[in-house]
Amino acid sequence: MPSEWYEQECGTCGKEFPTGWHARDQHCKATGHSPPEVYKCNRCERSFRTYDSQFQHMEAKNHFQYKCRQCYETWPSEEQRREHEANDHYLCAECDRKFNSRHDVRQHLRSRIHIGCKVSCPLCNKAYTTATGVTHHIESGSCPKATNMNRDTLYTLVRAHDPKGAVSKKLIGWHGEERYEATDWAWNGSGYECFYFCHKSFRTLQSLNQHLASPVHQQALYHCPSTRCAKDFKILGGLINHLESEMCGAMRFDKVQAGVESLIRGGRLLM
């Protein structure tokens, strides 16, 4: 059986030894030289002089180390295999669970069971799974360090730190939204009606007032930064959730997690 090329060559000076690796090793021992660095295919054991030629071979032959558990494709790393299984087969490999769509498996992979609580409120340090959770926490006035914060005050803060209107809409003359509160006069005989807007009926006056206090009938304050999307949002939490979904490709999920803290951190100026 003939010797492989790397058994016949000195890796330092390039001298060749047709008789094989014994002569090569004697040469290396006498001179202090080293055998050549060898790059072997993960599957067929073919050897290459460079990493690039090894990679090109494995890519062409589908010989990478990590094989998809749903098809015949192979990948250079475990991370790339899991990414492929999630994107193309809707599979969570860790849970051994399949989903109906790429969106569903992405939502699952970004849930607390997989990523824990990695995003902290920049004001009170309470931990949340995603940036959307932190944003709702602050925007709703639930943060004990920002009880005066609401949709309007947070928009004022964001707009001050977003002079070019990357995500905040430039509303000339805007001084906050009007507040509405219904009374018993809203009873229409069968329920409490949202008379001035949508005419939807509610079983209780409290439910109607919760509806009126929500942003549902308020002006949009934010927009998606992607010019291809430009979708409007009434609350910052809605915009952050949209960006986290990666539906329009405006921003990667990880970038949203890192960016929302710096965006909201300006809230300290209002404290």
Write out key terms for the chains shown.
271 residues, alpha+beta, two-stranded antiparallel sheet, two-stranded antiparallel ribbon, 10 helices, 35% helix, elongated, Znf_C2H2_type
Characterization of this structure:
It comes from Gnomoniopsis smithogilvyi. InterPro entries: Znf_C2H2_sf, Znf_C2H2_type. One of its GO terms (molecular function) is zinc ion binding. Residues 39-68, 90-119, 192-217 form the C2H2-type domain. Keywords: Metal-binding, Repeat, Zinc, Zinc-finger. The chain has 271 residues and is α+β, with helices and mostly antiparallel strands. It folds into 3 domains: 5-37, no CATH class; 62-109; 114-177 and 218-270, no CATH class. The protein is 35% helix and 9% strand. The protein has 10 helices and 12 strands. The chain has helices spanning 21-31, 51-61, 78-89, 102-109, 112-115, 131-139, 151-160, 205-213, 236-245, 253-264, and strands at 39-40, 47-48, 66-67, 74-75, 91-92, 97-98, 119-120, 127-128, 192-193, 201-202, 222-223, 232-233. Strands 1-2 form a two-stranded antiparallel sheet. Strands 3-4 form a two-stranded antiparallel ribbon. A hairpin with a 6-residue loop joins β7 and β8 (127-128). The longest helix is centred in the N-terminal third of the chain and has 12 residues, at 78-89. It is elongated. The N and C termini lie far apart (79 Å). The model is unreliable at 267-271 (pLDDT under 50).
